[in-house]
Amino acid sequence: MFIKKSLLLVIVFNFVQVNCICILPVTGQPFAAGTAPMGVAFSPLVNGKIFSSVTNFADTSISTYQVDTSTGVNSGVFTSVSAPVATGIGPFAVAYSPLINNNLFVGVANEIGSVTIYISDLTTGALSVVGTFAAGAATKGIAFSPVINGNNLLVAASNQGDNTVSVYSVQSTTGVLTQVPGSPFVAGAEPLGIAFSPIVNGNLFAAITNVNGNTISVFSVNMGTGAFSLISTVPLPGVLGPRSIAFSPLVSCNLFAFVPDQTDNVVITFQVNTNTGAFTQVSTAPSGLTPTAVAFSPLVNGILLSGVANQGETSASIYNVNTNTGSLSQLTSAGSPFATGNVPDGLAFSPLVNQRVFFAIANGGSANISVYKVIYAPLLLSAALNCATKTVTITGSSADAGATISVIADGVTVIGTGIADALGNFSFSLPLATSNHTITVTQTIGACTTEQSNSIAIICSPVGPVSDLVRAIIQKYCPFLSV
Question: Is the separation of the CB atoms in 377 and 441 below 8 Å?
Fold first, then answer.
């Protein structure tokens, strides 16, 4: 039996993993903060919304903003959700928790020696104080763990004044903190930067940079009790005053940790053994002057970014991370390194939303926040080939408003372009010969062009016998067709 009409077979493939990075300043940035903003953090994506909070060291307050997650011209704009909320004296660092039991918490490390916890309204982002909890002396770093076993959460704070780390369990419905047995735990000399790893191979690790010891304290975390056990103290020869540390997401079965080196103006890459937590230095990469804060982006389309705030030259260096080796390549796109305000102290990346990620820098010397958007390839939703008219109709979303959409056949040939509308959607038709093709798209904003999108294969079968393979596919997915 024969099919009476030409057959269109559409197959969706994974994202093309190439490294074209498009970074643009957000409209209206920098955004006003309080006096001497130090730390900055983004919330997870909650009901399509992202929030960001900044600690204002000299004002003893925290400012919170809603981030515009649209694809229009206001994409990434920070809008204050309320007046600044009081903290303890000397708010140094801030962190958002993961979402747990439909609650979102915010923690602030207060230099006076305490941790203040807030609950964030999931609709407005407004913060309500849960309480202030005693820590050690000169508390300066704070980090939440991933959610453990579905309903457990930890928060840890580094105490620079007494060389310890305070670790608390977080009551998932109220946000109340309780120090875990054995807390505080001994760290190195003047601990400052602190981070939890993702859970890998059933293990959870934490790491702290010790400013006066010029070392990293690496701990295993008991996911039942929350107790920290020292694995190793990693020396940093020639490094003076390491201030921050960040773990990567798990990528290509690898886990990395990055530490900025203010002495040599480089970023140090360590590979982390996911079974033992052992750190092995694998490479360094140049930064700007006096790199301080460090952070990772989420993994998007096979692309992982990292960034550091360069306090000595009012800039941020953004890197493409090799997910196999952890080596860094500083971006050479327009604007790199990216301008900040005076004395950039904190840096953070947002989660992915609508094919874009934002990063923010808290500028302690200019009382504001610099914000940029990383724009990835738009989403290709459909590519339908009309075998009779020899045209292909493209539809997609999540482009930048007004971006030029280029349609690419077989990863090589641009067959035509169209324009995204004000909401970032696009739909148009182009001539294309009736043969087998794989279709992708890119978007261009100014001089910046993204990587290629997810791909869709379009196959136009002429009238004639249907092969066994095609017959099997049709019978599985389109049983109403007679073949």
Answer: yes
Look at residue 15 and tell me whether its pLDDT is greater than 80. Answer: no
Residue 469, classed as helix, strand or coil, is helix
Count CB neighbours of 263 within 10 A.
13
- Specify whether 318 is located in the same domain as 449: no
Residue 2 lies in a domain: no
Examine residue 30 and say whether the peptide bond preceding it is cis (omega within 30 degrees of 0): yes
* Cα distance between residue 296 and residue 291, in whole Å: 15
Q: Which residue has the tokens 């294309």?
A: 432
The Cα 464–Cα 340 span in angstroms is 63
Separation in Å, CA 29 to CA 25, 190, 339, 340, 370: 7, 35, 11, 10, 6
* pLDDT score for 247: 98
The helix/strand/coil state of 472 is: helix
pLDDT at 474: 52
The predicted model gives 395-405 an average pLDDT of 92
pTM of the entire predicted model? 0.89
Q: How many residues does the chain have?
A: 483
The dihedrals phi and psi of 90, each to the nearest 5 degrees, come to: 70, 55
Q: Are both 274 and 331 inside the same structural domain?
A: yes
Give the rounded distance of the alpha carbon of 181 from its chain centre: 32
Predicted local confidence at residue 462, as pLDDT: 52
Query: Percent of the chain, pLDDT > 90?
Result: 77
Residue 6 pLDDT? 41
Residues 43-84 have pLDDT tens digits of 999 999 999 999 999 999 999 999 999 888 899 999 999 999
CATH code, domain with 83: 2.130.10.10
Among 350, 375, 400, identify where a domain stops. Answer: 375
- The Cα–Cα gap between 242 and 442 comes to 40
| Residue 276 exposed, middle or buried by CB count within 10 Å (0-12, 13-18, 19+) | middle
Q: Looking at residues 428-442, what average pLDDT do you find?
A: 86
| Buried b / exposed e along 387-426 (16+ C-beta atoms within 10 A) | beeeebebebbbbbbebbbbbbbeeeeebbebebbeebbb
Element (H, E) at 377: none
Q: Point out the domain boundary residue: 331, 349, 375.
A: 375
Print the domain residue range for 124.
Answer: 22-375
User: Does one domain contain both 266 and 393?
Assistant: no
Tens of pLDDT along 93-110?
999 999 999 999 999 999
Q: How many domains does the chain have?
A: 2
* Residues 400 and 354 placed together within one structural domain of the fold: no
**CATH number for the domain harbouring residue 462:** 2.60.40.10
The residues with which 384 forms a beta bridge, in sequence order, are: 393
